[in-house]
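# nightly structure sweep
# worker-07 picked up a monomer target from the shared queue
# config: single-sequence mode, recycle default, output format = structure tokens
# input follows
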Amino acid sequence: MIIKSDPKKDFATIHEIINDASIAYKGVIPSDRWKEPYMTEEELQEQIIEGVEFWNFEENNKILGVMGIQFKNDVTLIRHAYVRTSERQKGIGGKLLRHLIQMSKTPILIGTWASASWAISFYTKNGFKVLPETEKNKLLKNYWNIPERQVETSIVLASVVGNF
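# output follows
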């Protein structure tokens, strides 16, 4: 079942899932971008304050996966898509993504690490297209608040290719 997260009640679980699932990036993303924990509690709180709404995939009253959505001006951003390591490859991410896609009334953008081949494959299988480098750079600087080094080592995928 997919339900909207209650940031107060679910905060610790969302934080735990993000840091559990993000271990897949260790040794894959540039070493200067990896840290432990991958996302601090303060960083997660900042994301929520900035308007990221988390949605949970729950089974037997246990949260197995989370995905955020952020409505920014003329686009929708999919943010922080994570499934517990023990629950991967069970369709949870796809169910969450399809749910969030239905909520959007604007083009959807997704940023991820360029070296995270599994994430890129997941999004392309779900109808997203990798955008060209010049468009990627412009979009990351316009819609995300990330360091320049992360811009250099990331890609952007879009549901609708066009001028943003």
